Amino acid sequence: MHPELDPIEKLARLGNVNAYEPAGDAPQSERLAFDAGGGIMSCIAHVTTPHGKKPVLKAMVTTACEKNCYYCPFRAGRGEMRRVAFTPDEMAEAFDRLRRAGLVEGIFLSSGILNGGVATQDRILDTAEIIRRRYHYRGYIHLKIMPGAEYDQVVRAMQLADRVSINLEGPTPERLSELAPKKDFSAELLERLRWTHRIRQRERVRADAVTQFVVGAVGDTDLELLSLSGWLYRQIGLRRAYYSAFNPVRGTPFEDRPPVSPLRERRLYQASFLLRDYRWDVEELPFEQDGNLRLDVDPKRAWADAHLRQAPVEIMRASRDELLRIPGIGPKGADAILRARRKGRLTDLSHLRALGVRAPERAAPYILLNGRRPPRQLPLQSR
Residue 162 in contact with residue 207, Cβ under 8 Å? Predict the structure, then answer.
């Protein structure tokens, strides 16, 4: 495990091990934001956080793991994986040195599971405690919650961190058992997400909670993934669901399975935002017969093609929810339209553009302006 190495040298050996673990709010761009030159810079990603875009250290307490998740590069017994481990003091010191050098402004801390989830969670918490107390750091921390972590550990993580991750990986117990047979969907994972909601209601904490799914490795459908995501948004106040398109890793049982298109991942995010930010119900999403979304068009436009082309929305009378159903109009645009129409009539696409609707031509096939279809309809572009 190389205990003789300087902590910074050990971090450099990690490389971008967390490339597919999102730490912020723009996961697809975050994945591409690692430095390609290797060394310590390959551990640093430019992450969009609730406090703005920051360079964040993405690290693991250990890359050793006793679980045998079939898709994971860190799975037990995979000989090709370079194993590295840190003490809490080493990781905290490395982060502080990088922060003082101006290289990072936050940390995302995960880990393989070694000696059980509780012991591993203690090492993560001890690291965060040292960073907060010894080094007096007040900035962005994102901590992973281990399967089987205790209630008090989750409380302490949410007190120390700005965000915590509890990755469900699969959308149902059956899907998870195909991905990670040594993990318990309900008892070890989903219950801890429920705890985060209870803790936010009862305790004084700073963190929100997110989860992640592995997409497409075991036949999971978009309907399954988005049904659970919608429930998590409504029932436990989940801040965000992440979707990671499966890519095979050499030396794992899934190495011969085909990769999943990044476009499927993108469509899942678009649909997820409709559930979280636009208050759609899962039943309204335009699933195909196989339970998946179309890849050739974004889900909002697919719904509008089916419902609004023959029944366009009158911009001068539509409610806010109706405006949000129109491709090209988001929350800011809808609010601007509501304000503007109190003062006058909107009769042209240029009026919408002047209000800040960035692509009114996308809305054109689905709307009426003062009782008329817009006279000019430019070619539609996928959102």
Answer: yes
Distance CA 100, CA 214 (A): 35
Tell me the pLDDT band of 16, cut-offs 50, 70 and 90.
confident
Residue 46: strand, helix, or coil: strand
* Cβ atoms of 236 and 190 closer than 8 Å: no
pTM of the model: 0.90
From 255, 216, 228, 225, select the one nearest 70 (Cα to Cα): 255
**What distance in Å separates the CA atoms of residue 166 and residue 190, rounded to the nearest whole number?**
8
Residue 376 · residue 363 · CB < 8 Å? no
Question: What is residue 380's predicted lDDT score, i.e. its pLDDT?
Answer: 46
Token pair for 291: 């339970």
Which structure tokens are listed for 180?
């990670």
From CA 359, how far away is CA 373, in angstroms rounded?
Answer: 16
The letter for the amino acid at 266 is R
* 3-state SS assignment for residue 345: coil
What residue segments make up the domains of the chain, in order of their start? 7-209+243-254, 299-368
Query: What's the one-letter identity of residue 186?
Result: S
Q: Which CATH number fits domain 299-368: 1.10.1740, 2.50.20, 1.10.150, 1.10.10?
A: 1.10.150
Instruction: Please determine, for residue 131, whether its predicted confidence score (pLDDT) is greater than 70.
Output: yes
Amino acid 96 reads D
* Number of C-beta neighbours around residue 373 at 10 A: 13
CB 230 within 8 A of CB 218: no
Asked whether 212 and 169 are in contact (CB, 8 A), the reply is: yes
pLDDT tens-digit series, residues 324-338: 999 999 999 999 999
List CB contacts of 281: < 8 A, sequence separation 6 or more: 230, 275
Q: How many Å apart are CA 239 and CA 231, to the nearest integer?
A: 12
